[in-house]
What does this fold into?
Amino acid sequence: MPLARTGTLVAEAADKRRAVAAFNIITLEHAEAVIAGAEAAKSPVVLQVSENAVKFRYGRVLPLARAAVAAAEAASVPVALHLDHVKQDELLRQAADAGFSSAMYDAAHLPYEENLAATRAAADWAHTQGLWIEAELGEVGGKDGRAPLDAHAPGARTDPDEARQFVAESGVDALAVAIGSTHAMTSRTAELDHALLGRLDEALRVPLVLHGSSGVPDDALSAAVAGGIAKVNIGTALNIAMTDAIRSYLAANPEAVDARTYLTVGRQAMAATVTRLIGVLDRTV
It folds into this structure.
């Protein structure tokens, strides 16, 4: 089916007090697994390519983006393509032509006024290209190999009043909020501040996004969706599933050299993870 638009999928989910799952992909196997898992769940899904994934692919966005578009167009469920955690304006300006309908512009590491100015400029340009824009206020730590940010450190949590002003002045279409999750967690021990989420949901009229969701327990994820999160970003959980499956396969088959054999089990493990997590997001609390 034709490539879906992220903004449409998120708006439809938000209207139903549900969330659309957005999975970060690094390889074609990731994209195929996410789509297979979403098809098994009979659910729309967002494929996300981060700036770090582009760096991994020699700084070229088109090879993975075009592969993802082709896989999405062959899917039996709606699939959208999102450019994630973009800091470089040059990369943002490639988004529309590469098939992305949305991008997350990441200036959250900057002081508030600088974050606002950079995000407003990015959103103004992106909207002329028909792109839906997400930003972040507060800081969801753990990116780029940095140590996780203390959830109680100044600036680590999103302030509802500041968020209301930021959204109004930046013109973004969605806001990633810092409520206790951390990027790149390999244990599911994050503790979300659901009371803060409630205040943010009341203060804002744009969809809310949860980053670092791989480290959040199932019940907390379900509660976050019920509390107003409309887009849930997941990446590390896929990499854990793939790596564990391949490691087990190679341990049991030390003579294996054909990459298709172990990539198959890795792709299957990721697809099963996608289906399971979509089910968690659809669960009523």
Remarks:
- The longest strand covers residues 79-86.
- The domain at 6-282 is CATH 3.20.20.70 (TIM Barrel).
- The two ends are 32 Å apart (CA to CA).
- The mean pLDDT is 92.
